[in-house]
Amino acid sequence: MNEPKILGQFQLEHRTIQVSGDDHGGTVWLRRVHPDPPMALGCVVELDTPTPRLRLYRAEWPDHLRDQAKVHTIEVWTASRRP
């Protein structure tokens, strides 16, 4: 199995979040890379459907941050798929 490739990153408040995925494209993984320590955050699944779903390993993010993370992740994923 191939390692997921880094598709991009975005800022969410004080966090830098890295988005990675593979060539199959339905799921991407989120990892906080700043501040230290780096930490796996979760994933966005069903990106190729009208209703992608954000799944975080920890549920303490407020709804507005969850929504922003999902929107930014979809933007990174969409940009990575352009030729």
Description:
The chain has 83 residues and is of the alpha+beta class. It has one domain (5-80). Helix content is 22%, strand content 41%. It has one helix at 63-80, and strands at 5-12, 15-21, 27-34, 39-45, 53-56. Strands 1-2-3-4-5 form a 5-stranded antiparallel sheet, covered by helices on one side. Strand 4 (39-45) and strand 5 form a beta hairpin. The longest helix has 18 residues, at 63-80. The chain starts with a strand and ends with a helix.
Q: Looking across the biggest beta sheet, what order are the strands in?
A: 1-2-3-4-5
What is the average of the pLDDT values?
90
Query: What share of residues is helical?
Result: 10-25%
Largest sheet: 5 strands, antiparallel
Based on secondary structure, the structural category is alpha+beta
The percentage of residues in β strands lies in 35-45%
Termini separation: 24 Å
Radius of gyration: 12 Å
The global form is: globular
Task: Give the total of domains.
Answer: 1
Number of strands: 5
Please write the string of helix (H) and strand (E) elements. EEEEEH
Number of helices: 1
Give start-end ranges of low-pLDDT stretches. Answer: none
Nutshell version of this structure?
With 83 residues, this protein is an alpha+beta fold. The chain has one helix at residues 63-80; strands at 5-12, 15-21, 27-34, 39-45, 53-56.
Layout of helices and strands, plus pairs?
Layout: E1 5-12, E2 15-21, E3 27-34, E4 39-45, E5 53-56, H1 63-80
Antiparallel strand pairs: 1-2, 2-3, 3-4, 4-5
Which labels suit this protein?
41% strand, globular, 83 residues
